[in-house]
Write a structure and sequence with these properties.
Number of strands: 0
Number of domains: 1
Order of helices and strands: HHHHHHHHHHH
Distance between the termini: 27 Å
CATH topology: Hypothetical protein af1432
Strand content: under 5%
Shape: globular
CATH architecture: Orthogonal Bundle
CATH superfamily: Hypothetical protein af1432
Helix content: over 70%
Oligomer: single chain
Length: about 200
């Protein structure tokens, strides 16, 4: 099911303008690259590319907002913060993105919202658009680590396996830096491990 909105190109234009004026050049380039990668993967795997595009464009819209503002925003919208997010406030940028998308652009689509919510930690249940964004955010062409290249190649043929590689890499990276790992990441790993064919 595509988003049949007569003003869709105008909406995309409006979001792009916002990104260019509210994000650093580096972050904006990353977001646009994630969008291109998401649309490409969605089309390859016959997934709704309009929803993938919206989720990709808005996933980091609050990434550069200071922690105190994120906390304030969470309070205003009644978002409950768990003890892991309290230790790593920046995790909230994905959970709060749906509120921003609705307030700023009138976008309120649960598929788009879930993809934004889950793009950092993953989740035990992830739909096709969630996986497209999760993988694209990790492997868009501006990402310079070696794993991005291998995941990008893998994602062309097997999105599930690519998502599994991403969650493994994220967990390993956090472990190597002695960081707290959100339970959603472990649960995502376990669910993907069980679902592998």
């Amino acid at each position: 099911m595509q988003l049949h909105m007569p003003n869709y190109p105008k909406l995309i234009e409006k979001i792009e303008e916002h990104l260019k004026t509210h994000l650093t050049k580096h972050r904006c380039e990353h977001v646009l690259s994630v969008r291109d990668q998401s649309v490409k993967l969605a089309k390859i795997h016959n997934i709704n590319s309009d929803k993938a595009e919206l989720a990709a464009l808005l996933h980091d819209s609050l990434k550069e907002v200071p922690n105190n503002k994120l906390l304030q925003y969470a309070k205003e919208h009644g978002l409950l913060i768990d003890k892991y997010e309290e230790k790593n406030i920046s995790l909230l940028h994905g959970k709060l993105a749906p509120f921003f998308a609705k307030n700023q652009f009138g976008i309120d689509d649960e598929i788009v919202n879930n993809a934004m919510r889950n793009h950092t930690t993953g989740a035990p249940v992830m739909g096709p658009v969630d996986k497209v964004l999760f993988v694209s955010d990790f492997c868009e062409p501006l990402r310079l680590y070696n794993e991005a290249d291998s995941v990008r190649a893998l994602a062309q043929n097997d999105l599930e396996e690519a998502a599994f590689e991403v969650i493994k890499y994220k967990i390993q990276k956090n472990l190597s830096k002695n960081r707290i790992i959100h339970p959603d990441s472990f649960n995502a790993y376990n669910a993907m491990s069980q679902n592998r064919t």
